[in-house]
Design brief:
Number of strands: 2
Shape: globular
Radius of gyration: 14 Å
Order of helices and strands: HEHHEHH
Largest sheet: 2 strands, parallel
Distance between the termini: 35 Å
Helix content: 40-55%
Number of helices: 5
Strand order of the largest sheet: 1-2
Strand content: 5-15%
Oligomer: single chain
Length: 97
């Protein structure tokens, strides 16, 4: 189950390790669920992540994650399974930027 609170926990964890540029890449479909179905606490967390420029909504999914990782020389932390093709693409993009 998707959780803005879970994203906040991850962001806070990496910030506590000294990471200063933590970004969450989230499917655009999650943003469109901004209705009364989302608890107010989750909306507050979402607004905080947006204010701090720590969340990016995408319709391109893993492609945007890979591109951002290459641009920022970043580590990807994900609950999605990255198949070998995705990892090979990441290595190619990193080596040819």
């Amino acid at each position: 189950m998707f959780s803005y609170r879970g994203l906040k926990i991850v962001v806070d964890y990496f910030n506590s390790l000294g990471c200063t540029n933590v970004k969450c890449v989230v499917a655009e479909s999650q943003k469109s669920k901004r209705t009364s179905v989302i608890p107010i606490q989750s909306l507050e967390i979402l607004e905080e992540l947006e204010r701090n420029d720590q969340i990016i909504f995408t319709s391109n999914g893993i492609g945007d994650v890979l591109n951002l990782a290459v641009q920022e020389n970043a580590v990807i932390v994900s609950n999605a399974k990255l198949n070998p093709l995705n990892l090979a693409t990441l290595a190619y993009l990193r080596d040819n930027k």
